Amino acid sequence: MGSQGTWVPWAHCQDRDSPGPDQEREKCWAELFDQLDLNKDGRIDILELRTGLAGQGLSAGSFERIVETGDTNQDGVLDFEEFTQYLRNHEKQLKLMFSSLDRNNDGQIDAVEIQHCLHSLGVNISLEDATKILLSMDKDGTMTIDWNEWRDYFLFNPLTNMEEVALYWKHSMVDIGELLTVPDEFSEEEKKSGFVWRQLMAGAMAGSVSRTGTAPLDRLKVFRQVHGSTDFKGNVLSSFQYMVKEGGVRSLWRGNGINVLKIAPETAIKFSAYEQIKNVMRGGNDTKNLKVHERFVAGSMAGATAQTAIYPMEVLKTRLTLRKTGQYSGIADCAKQILQKEGVAVFYKGYVPNLLGIVPYAGIDLAVYETLKFAWLNRNIGSVDPGVMVLVGCGAVSSTCGQLASYPLALIRTRMQAQASEKGAPKPSMLALLHNIVTQEGVAGLYRGISPNLLKVIPAVSISYVVYEYTRIVLGVDIEGRRGGKGKG
């Protein structure tokens, strides 16, 4: 949720003690209602809630859930009575949750109590992570959470039990699509319930829509990577014009089919490999928490495993992206022709630079993303969820830094995948290619095609995030990690 102190009436509400007379809370709710009732018609609709609570990092599903739960006369809006009744009931639920967390009944929640509660729900986190959760809610710097801090933090977050709070803490900052190498952690309960596969399906859907939306820029990147400055003198615009003239507007999406097809197997293999590698690293001790660098190593190894398994699809994608009109009738025909003319080995052309590129890209992407995210959280004490725009910004910057580091290897990989298609042409090794590019095109040649690649970062990350969030809602897992249909506790 966002920094709540910036909203004046809410700040007044937070200053008042709950143990005081009920009239104080009623007065506070009246101020909140007046602030949210933008058109002053005595009712609050979803749009007004979304506008008034825009800084709180809530998902679209949260606003719907608040209205559905509080709207007793089913007219689609909340009047003052419904609004106050909703908050009255919600605060009672929050009080029950607070009491269940407060094991020693001292009126304060500490990091050990948060860790114990999550462990009892099957979510194993370190004391360090529990402290991060605590710090996000601790406004007075006491290293504990009192009832007022707990209530004010979750006042407009429609969570109804500790299972939902646990999932919210765990998944409110979940990473999307291809943003991070380190996959999310899931408990045994989540794996058995099918939650994991719904989560992965949402990621695959987000990746599919995102890649389709940015496919023309991706094709332009591959086209410019392969056609070096000696072959093609044109700029970005003339490259677009050449592709459209050669095959029409539809040709800008060449290779996108297989690019989308490979997402599902790659995601599934990466996740399965990650789980197996983690088990090996734990040495049979299921309760051991892996440190960030251990998770990074496990994530990189899982990524390499997935890449090895689906690499032939990468080669097919490059060939289909670069194909001339009528060259192949489809994916199967492309695979058949390559196999007949060039043999099986060609399906692993460029594999070595591809594998070498995973580590710098993933390491820098993860390091920059985590650094930016925690820098934001440190500047905005009182927030556990940076919100859509901050996450998209962090993802875009970290992805760009990762690409700048690994791009020369990606370019050499694509050249190797493509050059094998030219009959009788020399097929230089990775080092020979590197030498040729630097000699003929200079160091700048190693970054040929990077401009369309950088151009697609922000739209790709943004599309991914939006699709991911709404797909999770459709699949019954919204951004707070709530399971089940809308409006159900």
Provide the fold topology.
Elements: H1 8-15, H2 22-36, E1 43-44, H3 46-52, H4 60-70, E2 78-79, H5 80-101, E3 108-109, H6 111-120, H7 127-137, E4 145-146, H8 147-154, H9 162-171, H10 188-193, H11 195-213, H12 215-226, H13 236-247, H14 256-261, H15 263-282, H16 292-322, H17 331-342, H18 351-379, H19 388-419, H20 430-441, H21 450-455, H22 457-474
Antiparallel strand pairs: 1-2, 3-4
Helix pairs in contact: 1-2, 2-5, 5-8, 6-7, 11-15, 11-22, 15-16, 16-18, 18-19, 19-22
If helices are DSSP runs of H or I spanning 4 or more residues, what is the number of helices? 22
Estimated share of beta-strand residues: under 5%
Q: Estimate the global geometry from the Cα principal axes.
A: elongated
Q: SSE order in H/E notation?
A: HHEHHEHEHHEHHHHHHHHHHHHHHH
Helix content: 55-70%
Low-confidence regions:
1-9, 172-182, 478-489
**Main β sheet profile:** 2 strands, antiparallel
Average pLDDT, all residues = 77
Q: Tally the structural domains.
A: 2
Count of beta strands: 4
Describe this protein's structure:
There is one protein chain. The strands form two sheets. The protein has a two-stranded antiparallel sheet. Strands 3-4 form a two-stranded antiparallel sheet. The model is unreliable at 1-9, 172-182 and 478-489 (pLDDT under 50). Helix 1 packs antiparallel against helix 2, helix 6 packs across helix 7 and helix 11 (195-213) crosses helix 15. Helix content is 65%, strand content 2%. The chain has 22 helices and four strands. The chain has helices at residues 8-15, 22-36, 46-52, 60-70, 80-101, 111-120, 127-137, 147-154, 162-171, 188-193, 195-213, 215-226, 236-247, 256-261, 263-282, 292-322, 331-342, 351-379, 388-419, 430-441, 450-455, 457-474; strands at 43-44, 78-79, 108-109, 145-146. The longest helix has 32 residues, at 388-419. It is mainly alpha-helical and 489 residues long. The protein starts with 7 loop residues before the first helix and ends in a 15-residue tail after the last helix. It has two domains: 11-171, EF-hand (Recoverin, domain 1); 188-474, Alpha/alpha barrel (Mitochondrial carrier fold). It is found in: Mitochondrion inner membrane. Residues 1-24 are annotated as: Disordered. This is EF-hand domain-containing protein. Keywords: Calcium, Membrane, Metal-binding, Mitochondrion, Mitochondrion inner membrane, Repeat, Transmembrane, Transmembrane helix, Transport. Belongs to the mitochondrial carrier (TC 2.A.29) family.
